[in-house]
């Protein structure tokens, strides 16, 4: 493809993308194919001679689209949003063209891991400073990290990768599924009495199951006093802190050693774009410093270089989005999702057969039919089998709960009402068939 053809194909691709997004709600939100469906549609090997561009484009609808879950359909209410905006897509094209290497930290899961590894390194150094004869393996085998039992599974996995004990702190309905200071304090005391070394706590602001907020104003001072690294995972909820009315949810941030949120979830910057702040830069750099000759340059120690070098691809997308939406546009977008979530919540509350399972703070509504887990599992299966809307469940206090997350940029009130009409219609059927 030469430049002349690239200009033409590029314009065609923009049209294809615009058509796809403009008409996305006509597509089935969830694919109706079995894993492996691609095998019979694609050749075993790459073509010996090049295919034409037309051949490739033709196969988008024939081969690719049947297997796609349309995350940007206004009928997609599963997981949390993955952001999507035109300025970010344009910036993505530009970063592809500039094409320099971004040594990036990646996603929220990686931020949790990176913070954990830095915390481990800091803990070992602190102990060795006062007890230089102590063998390092003896220290690491005693380390213990904590997170809520509602934390994202990537936190537990970070513990596995780092090879340290990770303990889950219990939460329940009475705590609104948030970790309380007293519970953490008790666990730390018990672990210290058993000879363990508490060193890391991952708090979550906006948990994946129910968007709960750990009490960091209580937890932070405990962590600081015990020299425990407090990392805050605000992967989803972090974007909402650009609105003054949600900023109090961030109270206690001053106690954190590191903080992360995903602009690629709820701030209109396409995947991936995850941001991480660290209170003491040297704790992070010191833990991972590599100094090969081929990477040396004159600005090695400057913080400014560190930022720009590591995240050109992500920051370019952010820069486009921030400038073209402006703070007001981004705040409007967040507020609209929250309003739609409140609208859905009122629909649920107005129906005596249903109950709300957790406080609705941002764009997530956890709800269920009053009754058994079986009846709710069947309802969710029916909803997803219908393929008109897509939701995923969570377990709260042993109850099977349906999560309705505002995801798509284009979701409007009419989509919410249509989704609710569908849910109640299927609920009616399920309740007639099953004891509840
Ligand atoms: N943390 C929380 C609270 C999440 O909800 C999620 C994903 O939904 C993650 C972490 C993982 O984010 P990522 O895919 O960026 O690793």
Automatic annotation (TrEMBL):
Keywords: Catecholamine biosynthesis, Decarboxylase, Lyase, Pyridoxal phosphate
Pfam families: Pyridoxal_deC (PF00282)
MF (Gene Ontology): aromatic-L-amino-acid decarboxylase activity; pyridoxal phosphate binding
Keyword flag Lyase: yes
Matching PROSITE patterns: DDC_GAD_HDC_YDC (PS00392)
Alphabetized InterPro entries for the sequence: Aromatic_deC (IPR010977), PyrdxlP-dep_de-COase (IPR002129), PyrdxlP-dep_Trfase (IPR015424), PyrdxlP-dep_Trfase_major (IPR015421), PyrdxlP-dep_Trfase_small (IPR015422), Pyridoxal-P_BS (IPR021115)
Cofactor annotation: pyridoxal 5'-phosphate
Enzyme Commission identifier(s): 4.1.1.28
One of the record's GO cellular component terms: cytoplasm
Pathways per UniProt: Catecholamine biosynthesis; dopamine biosynthesis; dopamine from L-tyrosine: step 2/2
Biological process per Gene Ontology, one example term: amino acid metabolic process
UniProt keyword annotation of Signal present: no
N6-(pyridoxal phosphate)lysine found at: 265
Subunit composition and interactions: Homodimer.
Family from the record: Belongs to the group II decarboxylase family.
Protein name: Aromatic-L-amino-acid decarboxylase
Source species: Salmo trutta
């Amino acid at each position: 493809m030469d430049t002349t053809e690239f200009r033409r194909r590029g314009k065609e691709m923009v049209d294809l993308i615009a058509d796809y997004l403009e008409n996305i709600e006509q597509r089935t939100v969830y694919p109706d194919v079995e894993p492996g469906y691609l095998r019979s549609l694609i050749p075993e090997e790459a073509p010996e001679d090049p295919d034409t561009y037309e051949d490739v484009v033709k196969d988008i609808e024939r081969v690719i689209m049947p297997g796609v879950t349309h995350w940007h359909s206004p009928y997609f209410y599963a997981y949390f949003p993955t952001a999507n905006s035109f300025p970010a897509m344009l910036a993505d094209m530009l970063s592809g063209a500039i094409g320099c290497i971004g040594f990036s930290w990646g996603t929220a899961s990686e931020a949790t891991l990176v913070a954990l590894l830095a915390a481990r390194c800091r803990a070992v150094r602190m102990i060795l400073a006062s007890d230089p004869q102590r063998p390092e393996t003896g220290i690491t085998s005693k380390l213990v990290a904590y997170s809520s039992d509602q934390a994202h599974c990537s936190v537990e996995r970070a513990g596995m990768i780092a090879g340290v004990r990770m303990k889950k702190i219990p939460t329940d309905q009475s705590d609104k599924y948030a970790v309380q200071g007293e519970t953490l304090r008790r666990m730390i005391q018990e672990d210290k009495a058993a000879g363990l070394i508490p060193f890391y706590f991952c708090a979550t602001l906006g948990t994946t199951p129910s968007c709960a907020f750990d009490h960091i104003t209580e937890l932070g001072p405990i962590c600081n006093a015990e020299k425990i690294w407090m990392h805050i995972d605000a992967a989803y909820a972090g974007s909402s802190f650009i609105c003054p009315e949600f900023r109090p949810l961030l109270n206690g941030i001053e106690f954190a050693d590191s903080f992360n949120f995903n602009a690629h979830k709820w701030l209109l910057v396409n995947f991936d774009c995850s941001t991480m702040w660290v209170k003491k830069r040297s704790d992070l750099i010191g833990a991972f410093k590599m100094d090969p000759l081929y990477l040396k340059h004159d600005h090695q120690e400057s913080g400014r270089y560190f930022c720009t070098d590591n995240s050109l691809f992500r920051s370019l997308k952010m820069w486009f989005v921030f400038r073209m939406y402006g703070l007001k546009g981004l705040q409007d977008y967040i507020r609209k999702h929250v309003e739609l979530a409140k609208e859905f919540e009122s629909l649920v509350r107005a129906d005596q057969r249903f109950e709300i399972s957790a406080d609705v703070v941002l764009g997530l509504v956890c709800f269920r039919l009053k009754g058994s887990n079986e009846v709710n599992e069947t309802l969710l299966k029916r909803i997803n089998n219908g393929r008109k809307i897509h939701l995923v469940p969570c377990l709260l206090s042993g109850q099977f709960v349906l999560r309705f997350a505002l995801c798509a940029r284009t979701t409007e009130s009419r989509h919410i009402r249509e989704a609710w009409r569908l849910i109640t219609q299927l609920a009616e059927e399920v309740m007639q068939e099953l004891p509840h």
